[in-house]
Fold this sequence. Notes:
By secondary structure, the chain is of the alpha/beta class. It has helices spanning 8-17, 21-38, 110-115, 128-139, 169-182, 195-208, 222-227, 236-243, 253-261, 271-278, 283-287, 302-306, 328-342, 363-373, 378-384, 387-392, 439-451, and strands at 41-50, 55-65, 68-74, 86-88, 93-96, 98-103, 118-123, 146-149, 154-155, 164-165, 187-189, 212-214, 232-234, 266-268, 410-413, 427-432, 435-438.
Amino acid sequence: MKFLNLPAAASRLLRLFHLSPLLFGAIMVAEVANAQQRADLVIENITIVDIAAAELLESQTILIADGVFVGVDNAGSVNVEAFVPSVDGQNLYGIPGLADMHVHLDADDLKRYIANGITTVLDLNGLPEAIAMRSRIEAGSLLGPRVYMSSPLLAGTAQNFSYQLVTNAEQARQAVLDIYAEGYDFIKVYDGLSEATYSAMVATARELGMPLLGHVPEAVGLQRVLDDQLLSIEHVEQIARATVAHNFDASRIPAIVAQIAAGSSAITPTLAVMEVLSARRTQWFDQLFDRPQMIYTPNSIAPWWSSFRAPAQARGNLLQTSAGGSSAEIEFYRALTRALNDADVLLLAGTDTPNPLMISGYALQHEFAALSRAGLSNAEILASATIDAARHLNAANQFGDIKSGLRADMVLLRENPLVNIEALNMIAGVVVNGRWLDQDRISSLLSEVVATRN
């Protein structure tokens, strides 16, 4: 069997003792034997989608042990008869587990994420109960995606949802110290912060080695957050607000993109939610309420979503529009996203659930369609939710690809997503942290969602 990563022990021996190729080969055989002995799941004859190369690796066999990929090789070179259980991957396509890089997490979301092949999420308004939930997932007592988490959003003015108010430098410093102690991964910068409050927040986070991400406060501006190397800026709408306001002049896009490309911040466009909100009172928007997956919408948010809908008596006169809608605003967002991608700015797939009509789990497929409408290729879209997501989180050595040594998260699809991005709706099974979930188990999870909607 060929391993993608040289075993560390063999590498050290070869380097330190100048072992002969023959002896080194014997060590490698021993390493392979050990890996085979401890494998507890094999996926046979699958076509792996190599997202970085945008190509297919056909007839592959994948070995998984203790929640980790331990071997990937051509089918036929591995004796799989001794391994139980095994999964037949014939005519299926394997991709890494997906990451939704902008969610607002609730415990009721976990099953929807897993059922849709989302094995990593970035929660961008973390709460203490979510930290406890993450601990249960990591301990294996709760099925769910790997969770990365920002602080509660730190705002300088009152908001209509959960937030922490910080109005001066002293409050900002103490907030960051508390957030660090509580175990959050990132500081979430939000609207309404004064320059002095923001500066204290950045300085304290730097002292602690804690990354920041989030919005572009009006008093701070785009250049300052780029200079301060925010890990990511959330929403292309935030970039537009900080640069063109409501004058969606596409001629300004090259200068904006050059400004962002000169920095190191990633961008999470969240295009789908922008499309939805800009397409109200259109037929396309109204039809979103008829999607089959609406059955998984929590009862608690359904009235809020419905409040954006035209009254029943007005629905006969809804405007016609193309999928995703078309307006000066949304076309600007699409053009900006496309230009950022062309300039090699790191783009991340995020949904901003549970904003209107963004159903946790299913919303990522909605975001993929929006990114496709913006002009990204299927491989680029897949990268934004796999290898680039891992890179963004400084975790490329942990997840985001199907390689030996990485966490065993993957999705088995019935069609090739490089050809048809809607293949991501055609899930044959999911592996999450080495655990195999077939279609029956996925259907059971979704039935539980319907039965327990809050």
